[in-house]
Design a protein that fits this description.
single chain; alpha+beta; 2 domains; 8-stranded mixed beta sheet; 4-stranded antiparallel beta sheet; 12 helices; 16 strands; 33% helix
């Protein structure tokens, strides 16, 4: 945004006012809060519901809340939900049909008014994920009208990362802990001897309008330097990383790799990775009817490429083995997504690593495929030097 206001500083009162102002605009404010042993996304009526004083400890297949002495609100990693739960709901009614007394059938398209959301605490990886879903669901040839309506009215307040988790690898997927684009306001939390406060940057005209009515002050040099320094330092503290290779080419050349057999022995094909992924978008349709047969509805719900029915044709599923289904997911996410949408399908949030019940790590699988590819290449070169033919 050209000519945007200079960075400002909010204190706790300013954060409270932010929620109040957004709600007064008629928006449904959604943000992180603690529930059921996790940081989840839920409707907020007050900034007090944010997870102040809570952090998270994550590993492959492991997630725990941990208390923090500093009272920080955004010092946790991403939880099991992403913002796609609101922009691209898990289940949505498309139309209903009713048979009148004279036998005529009337079809009513679902056209309810969509909520106007304000998302508070959107991580930079999730900003990228929203941009990817925008490309898929709002910018492609077949556009999702419901998604477009919900997305058009959404106000995004980013929360930059200063403490990445051990499952985070956004830097190696082309992102980072800084919010660079796609936000209306961006917050960077600072807790030090000078107090608990938030550096605020404006990313849109709507963001400037909201900031103007909040109690704030110009950013001082200490707050600005501390905030930017913390975000810059977070880039070097990612818990994981993708191998520094052309992943698109690697996946395309590894379709017959033996590593797929190894991961298939561990994969439960439960679909958790696709459910928690902020960019996975696949759906299916299901029709339901009442016992009389006079009323029917069509619903759309999330689907997963790990489901046997996902690729079911007249003679059975195309991808019947765990090997083929995991390979489909990973190669699409890291490779063929480029062919469809011109970008990677992975933002490095680490959710698929943390919420896999058996701890399968996408970065380890990519690294293993790379190692196997190198070994094959070296073997090929040795055979060429010896004048041997390929087996």
């Amino acid at each position: 945004m050209s000519g945007s206001p200079a960075p400002a500083v909010l204190d706790r009162n300013g954060l409270d006012a932010l929620v109040e102002v957004l709600a007064a605009q008629g928006r449904t404010v959604v943000g992180p809060t603690v529930r059921d042993g996790a940081v989840v996304l839920s409707e907020l009526t007050s900034a007090d519901q944010l997870p102040f004083g809570w952090g998270t400890r994550v590993e492959a297949g492991h997630y725990r809340l941990v208390p923090r002495a500093d009272g920080a609100a955004f010092a946790h990693t991403t939880g099991p939900q992403s913002w796609k739960s609101f922009l691209h709901p898990q289940r949505e009614k498309l139309w209903s049909a009713d048979r009148a007394a004279d036998g005529r059938l009337g079809v009513t398209e679902e056209g309810k008014e969509q909520p106007s959301y304000a998302f508070l605490g959107v991580r930079p990886c999730d900003l990228r994920a929203i941009a990817i879903q925008d490309r898929v669901l709002a910018g492609g040839h077949y556009r999702d009208s419901g998604y477009r309506q919900r997305r058009r009215g959404a106000f995004l307040v980013a929360a930059e990362c200063t403490e990445p988790g051990s499952t985070c690898f956004c830097v190696s997927t082309g992102g980072g802990p800084a919010a660079d684009a796609g936000f209306d306001l961006a917050l960077t939390e600072v807790v030090d001897e000078a107090g608990h406060r938030f550096l605020v940057r404006v990313g849109s005209g709507a963001g400037a309008d909201v900031l103007a009515v909040l109690p704030h002050r110009p950013a001082d040099a200490l707050t600005y330097a501390t905030a930017r320094g913390a975000v810059d330092a977070a880039r070097d503290r990612m818990g994981r990383a993708m191998p520094p290779v052309d992943l698109r080419a690697l996946m395309g050349s590894s379709l017959a790799a033996e590593r797929w057999d190894d991961v298939a022995e561990r994969c439960l094909t439960c679909g958790n990775c696709t459910m928690v992924c902020p960019t996975c978008f696949c759906t299916t349709s299901e029709d339901v009817t009442d016992l009389t047969g006079d009323h029917a509805e069509r619903w759309r719900r999330w689907d997963s490429c790990f489901d046997l029915d996902f690729s079911h044709l007249h003679d059975g599923p195309v991808r019947s083995s765990p090997r083929s289904r995991y390979r489909q997911w990973l190669t699409h996410k890291l490779s063929t997504w480029h062919d469809q949408f011109g970008t990677t399908g992975c933002v490095g949030c680490g959710r698929c690593v943390a919420w896999c019940p058996v701890g399968i790590d996408i970065t380890q699988e990519a690294a293993a495929l790379h190692s196997e590819s190198q070994a094959r290449r070296q073997e090929h070169e040795v055979r060429q030097e010896r004048g041997e033919t390929e087996p």
